[in-house]
Amino acid sequence: MKKVFYFLLILLLILIAGCTPSQVSGPAPFENSPAPDFELKDLKGNPVRFSDYRGKNIFLNFWSINCPYCLKELDELQSFFNELPENTLLITVNLDKDADKVKAYINEKGYTFPVLSDPKGETIKKYSIRGIPLNIFIDCSGTIKSRIEGALTKSYIIDLIKSYDVIKKPA
Prior knowledge:
Layout: H1 2-19, E1 39-42, E2 47-49, E3 57-63, H2 68-82, E4 88-94, H3 99-109, E5 115-117, H4 122-126, E6 134-138, E7 144-149, H5 154-163
Parallel strand pairs: 3-4, 4-5
Antiparallel strand pairs: 1-2, 1-5, 3-6, 6-7
Helix pairs in contact: 2-5
Protein name: Sporulation thiol-disulfide oxidoreductase A
InterPro entries: AhpC/TSA (IPR000866), Thioredoxin-like_sf (IPR036249), Thioredoxin_CS (IPR017937), Thioredoxin_domain (IPR013766), Thioredoxin_ResA/DsbE_sf (IPR050553)
Keywords: Signal
């Protein structure tokens, strides 16, 4: 019951954020538009600027520890991370306020993919996030190629990326 309450609370907060005027300048962050830049800290406290990864294909995932679909998808993301296609990065952005709780969960599960922490929800506005999990594929020029709300499987992610003919699967 407590999990349902937290899930509904997060969903309500996301809906409320979606009803407020956007602070995003420039084109909306959807297909064929430039991916908005941001700077967040990883779970070790190191600053990471998204634009530092220009020149690489990026699979960007937004999630919360209170979202059961997100947690299920993390296993798929780890499997994808273990077999990343050439010139491709996986970056996940956690939207929870308690980074220590997230770090403990990531360590407990043995996940090794990068996790950035966004406790203030800065990326929610920049990426017009309406629901999570949210998965965005960005090509090496920094253009959003695909934006999918909902949990994905490893095979779907790989097929999606291959469909843009921007990478080759490692031999």
